[in-house]
Write a structure and sequence with these properties.
By secondary structure, the protein is of the alpha/beta class. The chain is 46% helix and 16% strand. It folds into two domains: 2-241, TIM Barrel, CATH 3.20.20.70; 252-323, Non-ribosomal Peptide Synthetase Peptidyl Carrier Protein, Chain A (Orthogonal Bundle). It has an eight-stranded parallel barrel, surrounded by six helices. Strands 1-2 form a two-stranded antiparallel ribbon. Helix 4 (76-88) links the parallel strand 5 and strand 6. It is globular and about 60 Å long. The structure holds flavin mononucleotide. Flavin mononucleotide is lined by residues 15-18, 20, 40-41, 70, 97, 99-100, 139, 169, 200-203, 223-226.
Length: 325
């Protein structure tokens, strides 16, 4: 699959997740076979006003390439300027957030508020498209009503403005994450669009991804929550697409090695104190469904050094391996 001139070798995408898809997690997803990783959403205002904290969200390494960086905002001039900053940072793809439904973001006319204001959406897209040469993508929801009419309208505008691809998460803005994603809207957008369409929402297993491809005709599957703690889902999708016999879910060794690498990368990137604070909850993602997971989560909540985390992970691994039939 291609997004503009960027080649994606596995049609799987790590969804942008605020506070989660930072560099260490993206590297883990990439190692696990993900075709395209995305940054979390980044404020166009923060970029343009040179906020150091905001700029840090664009940190990257060549290992994770290709990288898509997502920005949000609603002022065409500021969005264009932010897009130039993103392109200059070396990002391969610039993504625009049309889906966030957090009140603070909606109040500024950004995120899914743009789906209610098609004229403003067009201005933003024209300004951004004119500002950069790298591929531009957007990520939308169904819109504000469940029919998907707004998704079709915004998809049409995006294509007119020269957007290279779009991702759709078919829940309404007011739905948040409740209910089920309505994959029929992905199929409708795909049928209309002349650009690649990425389906997103409720893919929990590699088989779900295959079902999404089959039911919607989408060009790539974007996975968010299910990839947190299980980045190997991307390799699973690839294996099923290649019709490899019997996809095997990640084994214990793979999971524990992944946790240790994620921990190490987080300590290197954020420093030990901050990384340990984050790891207190995040390492728990990786043990979902394993025996004694709640004991592990209790223990990991108390760490303040990398060595403590490593010891707890190793002890837990020994316990599970010792019990294995
Ligand atoms: C904690 C969290 C943070 C999110 N942050 C973003 C974001 O920064 N940008 C964005 O476009 N979508 C964001 N989303 C939406 C996801 O990208 C995705 O559309 C949604 O989770 C549905 O996909 P899934 O069922 O595979 O998780 C976020 C979702 C969650 C749960």
């Amino acid at each position: 699959m291609h997004i503009g001139a960027v080649n994606i070798d596995n049609p799987t995408i790590l969804a942008p997740l605020a506070g989660i898809t930072n560099l260490p997690l993206r590297l883990l997803a990439k190692e696990a076979g993900c075709g395209l990783v995305c940054s979390e959403m980044i404020s166009s205002n923060g970029l343009v006003h040179q906020s150091e904290k905001t700029h840090r969200l664009m940190d990257s390494t060549p290992w994770e390439k290709p990288l898509s960086i997502q920005i949000f905002g609603s002022d065409p001039g500021i969005m264009a300027e932010a897009a130039r900053i993103v392109a200059a940072s070396g990002a391969d793809i610039l993504d625009i957030n049309f889906g966030c439904s957090v009140r603070k973001v909606l109040k500024t006319g950004s995120g899914s508020a743009l789906m209610k204001t098609p004229d403003r959406a067009r201005e933003v897209l024209r300004a951004v498209r004119g500002a950069v040469d790298i591929p531009v993508t957007i990520k939308i929801r169904s819109g504000w009503d469940a029919t998907g009419k707004q998704a079709l309208e915004i998809a049409g505008i995006a294509e007119d403005c020269g957007v290279d691809a779009l991702a759709i998460h078919p829940r309404t803005a007011s739905q948040g994450f409740r209910g089920r994603a309505d994959w029929r809207i992905i199929a409708a957008v795909k049928q209309q669009a002349g650009i690649p369409v990425f389906g997103n929402g409720d893919v929990q297993t590699p088989q779900d991804a295959l079902d999404m491809f089959a039911q919607t005709g989408c060009d790539a599957v974007m996975i968010g929550r299910a990839a947190i703690g299980n980045p190997w889902i991307f390799a699973g999708v690839r294996a099923l697409l290649d019709k490899q016999e019997g996809y095997t879910p990640p084994g214990l060794e793979q999971r524990f090695e992944g946790m240790l690498r994620y921990l190490r990368a987080s300590v290197q990137y954020f420093g030990e104190t901050h990384a340990c604070y984050m790891m207190r909850s995040r390492l728990g993602w990786f043990v979902k469904g394993l025996r004694h997971a709640s004991h592990f989560r209790e223990a990991i909540k108390k760490i303040s050094t990398e060595q403590q985390a490593v010891d707890i992970i190793r002890r837990y691994r020994q316990t599970l391996i010792g019990e294995a039939p």
